């Protein structure tokens, strides 16, 4: 891949990861709030699941502090790690450290200021929403096409 293409791919991956990581963090926060209303036994199980997910995230992020990881990582790997760091940074100090390291390395290696990817993240969100709208419209059209020919939308025969 040409250097410019790699830079673009990493920028898009980081922007998307930033957006998704933030959404995952909000979902995790809501999950923690929802836990308060659970029975003690169920709460213990949910907490255990949360802790094991956090440990898995920390394991994924451990390598971002090494030079070798950055030499091997492709844009997808970088994006996934950044998303994981963003999602867990408020719950795990190791994830917050990984996010800080990634911000420095992204700036140093690729010239990417994560804060400046907001516009790209918004563009990705807009494209996603357009795709979702397109899917809904296609589904509606498909349902409409399934109606018998010669019938109006209300099921009445056309004159």
How would you explain this protein's 3D organization?
With 159 residues, this protein is mainly alpha-helical. 77% of the residues lie in helices and 0% in strands. It is built from six helices and no strands. α1 packs across α6. The chain is flat. The termini are far apart.
Topology:
Layout: H1 3-35, H2 40-61, H3 67-72, H4 75-88, H5 93-110, H6 118-146
Helix pairs in contact: 1-4, 1-6, 2-4, 4-5
Which properties best describe this structure?
single chain, 159 residues, mainly alpha, 6 helices
Strand content: under 5%
Helicity level, as a percent range? over 70%
Give the distance, in angstroms, between the N- and C-terminal Cα atoms.
Answer: 61 Å
Largest sheet: none
Radius of gyration: 22 Å
Which spans have pLDDT < 50 for at least 5 consecutive residues?
none
Mean pLDDT value: 77
Number of strands: 0
Order of SSEs: HHHHHH
Structure classification: mainly alpha
Count of DSSP H/I helices: 6
**How would you describe the shape?**
flat
């Amino acid at each position: 891949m040409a250097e410019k293409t790699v830079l673009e791919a990493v920028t898009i991956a980081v922007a998307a990861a930033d957006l998704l990581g933030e959404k995952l963090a909000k979902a995790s926060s809501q999950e923690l709030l929802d836990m308060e209303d659970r029975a003690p036994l169920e709460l213990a199980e949910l907490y255990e699941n949360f802790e094991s997910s956090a440990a898995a995230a920390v394991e994924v992020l451990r390598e971002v502090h090494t030079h070798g990881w950055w030499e091997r990582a492709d844009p997808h790997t970088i994006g996934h790690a950044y998303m994981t760091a963003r999602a867990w940074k408020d719950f795990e100090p190791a994830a917050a450290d990984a996010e800080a390291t990634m911000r420095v390395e992204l700036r140093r290696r690729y010239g990417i200021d994560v804060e400046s990817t907001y516009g790209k993240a918004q563009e990705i969100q807009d494209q996603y929403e357009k795709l979702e709208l397109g899917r809904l419209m296609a589904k509606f059209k498909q349902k409409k096409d399934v109606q018998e020919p010669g019938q109006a939308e209300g099921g009445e025969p056309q004159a």
